[in-house]
Amino acid sequence: MSAAVSRTIALPHCRVSYAEYGAGDGMPVLYCHGVPGTHVEGEAFDEAGAAAGVRIIAVDRPGMAESSLPAGEQVADWAATVAALADRLGLNRFGVIGVSGGGPFALAVAARLPDRVTGVALVSAPAPTSEQPAAADLDPVALRRRKGLNVLRRVPFLVHPMALEMSVVIRRRNGVAGLVSQMAPVDRDRVEADPELSAKLDTNLRRSFEQGSRGFAADIRLVFTRDWGFDLTEVTAPVQVWHGEADGNVPAADATSLAAALPRARLHLVPDAGHLLFVERSADILASLRADPA
Predict the structure, then answer these.
(1) CA distances from 214 to 22, 65, 140, 259 (A)
(2) Span 24-31, mean pLDDT?
(3) Cβ pair 216, 36 in contact under 8 A
(4) CB of 1 closer than 8 Å to CB of 26
(5) Positions of E strands within 33-153
């Protein structure tokens, strides 16, 4: 992965930072980072994008890197910012990638901008509350995470102290390593074997808290405690749903639920892959954006 210099654009209602990877003159694809996360994640698609002729534009959501707060009231509000940024960049039509917690934002862009979005790739993304798999279908780790999110939904004011605690953990020495230790074994082994990847994950997480914890808190609130502001049936573009079967952060059952609820979806379940699937299969993910669903 090679680093890119981030840029900042002042839009009428906010300031947005972003970075570009891949082929500068290629097919444009907007990248929606995880929660927490920043444009740094887009580096995972740099080499594959250059080879495939794809221009990756990784955009920071409110409160992340240099993008300004406040955030919207629903996930769907992000589409207006993307539309304004695309106008400034001269993008009439574009694809969208959403990784992990960025998945809902990618779907929102597709739902609100159907005439501009050519296709969507979701990677390790959560399903909305209305489409969550039954508790009986979850392993113990996923079930514990589900219970934690249910607490946040019932008591949403806990989001801010939780986000503040996370920011403190990230800023500690070896704080990021502590978070990695909680990931699935396949992801832990991958990070421990790749110092460059470990350093990029560290940079990505630390940059996501440069402005404090409010950006992370906003993402958690919008994705996990509120209605997203659109229905999955409104997403008419083809959607490629990618998920690792060994994902310890978001259960693979979420991917199955998403694929069943989206009108034009193709499900790609990858055996023995974890939450870092976007790093391992970046070329395949980009290639799928050019394909129609089965």
Answers:
(1) 30, 12, 30, 31
(2) 97
(3) yes
(4) no
(5) 54-59, 94-99, 117-123
Q: In this model, does residue 294 exceed pLDDT 50?
A: no
Q: CA 123 to CA 244: how far, in whole Å? A: 9
**DSSP code string of 238-276:** -EEEEEETT-SSS-HHHHHHHHHHSTTEEEEEETT--TT
- For residues 132 and 26, the model is more confident at 26
Provide the 10 A C-beta neighbour count for residue 256: 18
Residue found by looking up tokens 């990695």 in the block: 180
* Cβ proximity of 269 and 245 under 8 Å: yes
Q: How far apart are CA 249 and CA 149, in angstroms?
A: 12
For residue 14, pLDDT beyond 70: yes
Tell me the two tokens of residue 133. Answer: 């798999």
Do residues 59 and 102 touch, judged by C-beta distance below 8 A?
no
Whether CATH 3.40.50.1820 fits 7-288: yes
More confident of the two residues 147 and 237: 237
Of 200, 137, 136, nearest to 2 (Cα)? 200
Kindly report the backbone phi and psi dihedral angles of residue 269, in degrees, each rounded to the nearest multiple of 5, phi listed first.
-95, 125
Strand pairing partners for 96?
A: 30, 120
Q: Parse the chain into domains and list their residue ranges.
A: 7-288
The pLDDT tens digits of the residues spanning 165-213 come to 888 878 776 767 877 888 889 999 999 999 999 999 999 999 999 999 9
C-alpha closest to that of 160 among 71, 66, 34, 249: 71
Candidates 211, 177, 182, 178; CA nearest to 197 is 177
Note the pTM of the prediction, 2 decimals. Answer: 0.92
